[in-house]
Amino acid sequence: MVAQGNGPAGHGGRAQALGNASATLAGEVWAAANNPAGLGTITKPTAGLYFENRYLIPSLNVAAVAVALPLGPVEPLAAGQPPRASHGVLGLEAQRFGGVLYNELRVGAAYGYRLGVINIGGRLDALQVSFQDLGSRRVLVASLGGQAEILPQRLTLGVHLYNLAQARLADYQDERVPTVLRAGLAYRAGQQVLLLAEAEKDVERDAGVKAGLEYLPTAAVAVRLGYASLSQQATGGVGLRAGDFQLDYAAGWHSALGLSQYFSLGWQWRKAEAQHPG
């Protein structure tokens, strides 16, 4: 049996439009799923809803809710550095994949913290896999992530290891949750253009590559393109920001399987930021 998406599922319309090249993405609630290190740059409480449908098949639907909560007062790191939550950021996410015959339920707690130009993070999931008439199996899955600004505000490296303990679902045929390592680079070519490239390797499968392009014609609008070699899927989408709300939509096309669609909505509380003493 292969777990959802052959490992860690990419969440959020933005990530999906970028081919799920998401190891470097930060500052949004879906970092809780994509790379918990990215939570470290969030400074305001944020919530999100996510839905996806693969190939127009209802039994392949995914639904998720997430929240990110900065801990402690928000303070600037240093001159020229963005602010951070002094005690890090807690992320919580619940997701469901599948239908009646087979489904996966996952509840996870994530934490991200910013140290200068480095973000670190981790997540622990309680995963339940259920088969109709065959019962359910439950396991804990731990993940770690990191992000580093190689060139501040220009070039970022992101790394994410999912299921670092190689959790076992069943003794029969040594059935395990996939262990997946992802590493990527994000290059910001000016204020309007972001380029992403990422490699992904399941320890039991071939490696794959992902690529994404994000263009911001205005501060409130984003246009995105992506491609993922493992799923052989080309993607595209748009993002719209209106006040405290962020709406992202993506569509993917597979030459044999057809259309997939992804939708997410984010809401950020306007919480006053505390000033750093001195």
Automatic annotation (TrEMBL):
This is PorV/PorQ family protein. It comes from Hymenobacter ginsengisoli.
